[in-house]
Amino acid sequence: MIFYIDPGTGSMLFTILIGVLGAAIYAFREFIVKIRFRVSGGKKVKGDENPHAVVIFSDSKRYWNVFKPICDEFEKRQEKIEYLTSSPDDPALNADYEYVKCRFIGEGNKAFAALNMLEADIVLSTTPSLDVFYWKRSKNVKWYVHIGHAAGDLTLYRMFGIDFYDAVLTSGKQQEKQIRDLEKLRNLPAKEIVEVGVTYLDTMKSRLDQAGEIPEHKTTVLLAPSWGNSAIFAVYGGDIIKTLLETGYHIIVRPHPQSYTAEKERIESLMAQFPENEQLEWNRDNDNFEVLRRSDIMISDFSGVIFDFTLVFDKPIIYADTHFDKAPYDACWLEDEPWTFGILPELGPQLTREDLHDMRSLIDHCLNSNDYKQGREKARRESWAFPGESAERVVDYLLQKKQQLEIESDKP
User: Fold this and answer.
1) 152: domain range?
2) What is the pLDDT of residue 51?
């Protein structure tokens, strides 16, 4: 007889199996430690120390821009850490470090299996949904720290995105209130919240300062949407690309990296309908610095890349009216409007379907107007704390927390 197990049940069984294996391994380790403790006459023996005091986990190579400044700072201070990635082509794996050990731990369930049995004092990650789906808190990890990968809202994660972290490192004041409001609504213990700024924006600004002027070029429009049913491609389809091509400007289309997985058929259909040519290019660079630098204006929706473009490059945006559905996100629990949607009207005009017929005029107005400069300055003040200091502040926090945890573990 052949038994069929549906994917949902299979995932549940896998999670149960990992939990059982994790508990067994944890119990075995505890047994070994107790035996060694007794054999040594009650003295701490070599090897009892935690081999991975601080661990960074990245679920995608695209977050290397967040973690590289942090790894560089650990290397500079000659402090050992371990960087774990589930991307086999993560740039970190080719980094020349002495104190930062970078290791590929497999993709998908294999990576989560390793994380669920990880031993460390502290784990730092951008990955949401800890202890919600496949990634479970390890009994051998003392402290989990979340760091955002954009300067916008942390409530635009899927439901319960950061609920079970012990601490959150924020980009600015706007994120702290959201976290505290969710904690009250869900009766969660208060997390440690530390404002640190945005590591990759600091690096991007430094690169821009050193890059010099952009060579003369044809006006370039960057279409860089988010993904999902509320994003540009789900709402406007290929109409928006067709309209942009009619402006005569050079068009760069850069879908969100998640689009190539979550809405693969849609993206492949659009790429087939609008193949690359002299006027149109599809961009998939892991590092978005050059594509942002050579673009004159961006059209997006609620994607975090808006803030890279406006805060660092100080360039105008047009944001599409996509009737954002908050239902799948943490934001739907809160009465307040997400900060992102409150600040967007101060960064640029809204694009509606009625505006599609006159896209070139809308673009030209933005390029030749200073109407939104003050809005960009306001967004910068509210969402990008301590420019140029973020990596130092992150490492300061992690090392101080490590020391605190060590002191607490030494108490009788």
Assistant:
1) 46-198+388-410
2) 52
